Amino acid sequence: MTNNQKHLSRVLVVIALSFTFVAGYVTSLDRTTSPKAIFTGNEEHRISTEVALRYVANFHAMEGAQLTAGYMGRNIFEQILAQEEAVGIRIYNARLDNGSPTYVIVGVDSEGNDLIGGVIGEDILQCPPWCPDGTLRLYPDQQSLVLK
User: Rounded to an integer, what distance in angstroms lies between the CA atom of residue 147 and that of residue 70?
Assistant: First the structure.
């Protein structure tokens, strides 16, 4: 083996060892650093009435209008958000044992995990029939939209 070949093989070994060291270091960083919060509770969720109407209409056009809306009192939201780790609420489309559609709500921590060991809500008042006349309804049938 010539001197140039020996020198080249040494350089290649050093490069390979360097890459191995760097890869090991980067991998160990991923395991030792704590995950960053992905949810803060301060995310912006407000939309305009027009956008809300369009989104609801989009859903009903694809899924059919089995459940227009559901009401839950503020107390269940307050109970869920009062949990120490809760920064927000996740809403699941669900079905009761009898097949009726409903929503299930659960707290979410800053890493995006459902707080399934805590307070979980359901028991909605379905709309219809619990939709009083004269209220704003985000329903695709624009004739049912009544603003006071």
Answer: 19
